[in-house]
Amino acid sequence: MSILLEHAELLLRDAAGYRTLHDGYLGIRGSVIDYVGESAPEAPYARRLDMRGKLVMPGLINCHSHIPMVLMRGIGSGLGLHEWLFETIFPIEDRLVREDVAAASRFALLEMIAGGTTSFSDMYFFPDETVRAVAEAGVRANLNRCVQCFDENQTVEENHQIKESLALFEQYHGAENDRIRIDFSIHAEYTCKPRIARAYSALCAERGARMHLHLSETEREVRECIERYGVTPVAWFEQMGTFDSPTAAAHCVAVSAEDRAILRAHHVSVIHNPTSNLKLGSGFAPVREMLDEGINVALGTDGAASNNNLNLFEEMHLAAIMHDGYHRDPTLISDTEVLDMATVNGAKLQGRDDVGVLAVGKKADLIAIDLSRPHLYPVFDTPALLTCSAQAGDVCMTMVDGKILYENGEFLTLDAEKIKAQMRAALARLYA
Amino acid sequence: MSILLEHAELLLRDAAGYRTLHDGYLGIRGSVIDYVGESAPEAPYARRLDMRGKLVMPGLINCHSHIPMVLMRGIGSGLGLHEWLFETIFPIEDRLVREDVAAASRFALLEMIAGGTTSFSDMYFFPDETVRAVAEAGVRANLNRCVQCFDENQTVEENHQIKESLALFEQYHGAENDRIRIDFSIHAEYTCKPRIARAYSALCAERGARMHLHLSETEREVRECIERYGVTPVAWFEQMGTFDSPTAAAHCVAVSAEDRAILRAHHVSVIHNPTSNLKLGSGFAPVREMLDEGINVALGTDGAASNNNLNLFEEMHLAAIMHDGYHRDPTLISDTEVLDMATVNGAKLQGRDDVGVLAVGKKADLIAIDLSRPHLYPVFDTPALLTCSAQAGDVCMTMVDGKILYENGEFLTLDAEKIKAQMRAALARLYA
Question: What is the pTM of this model?
Answer without folding.
Answer: 0.98
